[in-house]
Design brief:
The longest helix is centred in the middle third of the chain and has 20 residues. The protein has 13 helices and nine strands. A hairpin with a 5-residue loop joins β2 and β3. The strands form four sheets. A three-stranded antiparallel beta sheet has the order 1-7-8.
Length: 348
Amino acid sequence: MRRRHTSRAFAVLVLGTLGSGIGSGCSTRSDAEGPIPSGLITGPGTPPTSVAPDEPAATAAIATDTTGATGATDTSTTTPSTARLAVVPTDAATFAAALSSAELTIRDPASPPEAVEEAGRQYQLLLRALADVPELDEPVLAALDPTVRPTVERTVRARQFLQARNAADTTPSTPPSELPAWTIVPPEAPDVLLAHYREAEQLTGIAWYWLAAIHLQETRMGRIQGVSSAGAVGPMQFLPSTWIECCSGDPTVARDAIIGAATYLARSGGPTDMQAALHQYNPHDGYVAVVTAYAENLRDVPQLYAGYHAFQVFVGTSAGTVRLPVGYTSPTPVDAAAHLAAHPADAA
């Protein structure tokens, strides 16, 4: 449905967001970053196996609205998101303790929603930070709480797979110099989205966790509003031509788009062969690995859904990684260096 490219190896595809589009019919936004959970990958360079399965929704009202020299509107809310870690771990034990704490908080049914949201943001930031020091991967995995190791390991293995693929790429892509023409909005509430995933599952047989994983990877569960470079639209990133061929309703409406994605996957081999269906959705091995990872983790630990729902939007550029907070909007591409000069708090 679409085509995708990675702009900054693992981090861009894995730890931030990747808006893309549907397979031959969808399009892709490869310049967004996001945490990249992987599939059940057994080691570096090994393809994922198939799976058998930021803001808080209702965000706070915008408190300020400032337009900088870039022409983009950058807003802050009464509950600002975490742009960077207060202290970046430098050793395996500290990384492992922080990752374990964040995931256990997300999993704990006694954790209040605001604590889960913050833990989700910290989890994403920690995974991104670990990607910068791959030599710590194995020591961190060994030191993790045994309860959380399987899910973190999937993430790490997927990133290793992507890093190996990018290292072998003889024509690597270069990071863009501009931020895309996006608007970043609050996602729908977790229970509302889950109801859409479940409805689509009942209609098509595509398990809810596959749909949540794709939604997360495409647009951070609807945070990103904008048209991809290939022309894909909506929260599940459909090319209009693909939408007309397979779906009904409005591809920019979450419920319709989620059901549309499930319909497309079912016509592409799912739920029997989800790897083939995902590859049809987006013919990029890295994309398949990332989505499989998210899905496997959600299948095995459904509580992680609330943490993933808190993931933020990060964009890798030639000027550095930029966090796009809820409230950011620009009708045209924006020079990344100029944006960071005007909005230093968005540097990640």
